Please model this.
Amino acid sequence: MITKVYQFANSWNDILGYETPEHHKNMLSFLYNVWQSPEHRGLLMAFRHSGKSTVVGIFAACVLYLQPETRILVLSANTTLAARMVAHIKNILENHPMCSDLIPTSKKEWASDKLTINRKIGIREPSVMCQGIYGNITGMRADLIICDDVEVPNTSNTQQKREMLRERLRELDFILSPNGTMIYIGTPHTMDTIYRTAETDD
Model:
């Protein structure tokens, strides 16, 4: 199935007039392996402006293409940052030729903070939803949780804030479905980074 992931990414980059960089292929391979591994936990860290969020958005859209029933929750330091990822996924779904069958005729849930693709009926949650890390996530359920830049100066510049953030992240286990996948992506902003905890705890 990894071949389909590469094909999906290459096709999207062709539309944009780009070739898929080798390090983006490596990121896609890593994300796919996390998704398919028994642990279903992963931490992706790379240098700034390496395209981490771009690749993760492509991967998320590809997951919906391969398994349309998947429920994806995007969490960031604030809702605005999380909504950027949803907008990125939305743009791919709307313009990728492999996703044309996923676009609903009636776009009741097709907004900047959540969207629902064509899929089996009976699934309550949107296909993709987003929230700030301290937003209301009570009652949510997700099969793939993407923690995209939850550690920024405003959430990690004191020990108290880092402990609050770690506690909040521990709550995600109650939202994730059995055999669900949780992926952290970001860049450390402190020596006592929460990503070290994510790496050892998960």
About this structure: Confidence is low (pLDDT under 50) at residues 198-202. The chain has one domain: 2-201. The domain at 2-201 is CATH 3.40.50.300 (Rossmann fold).
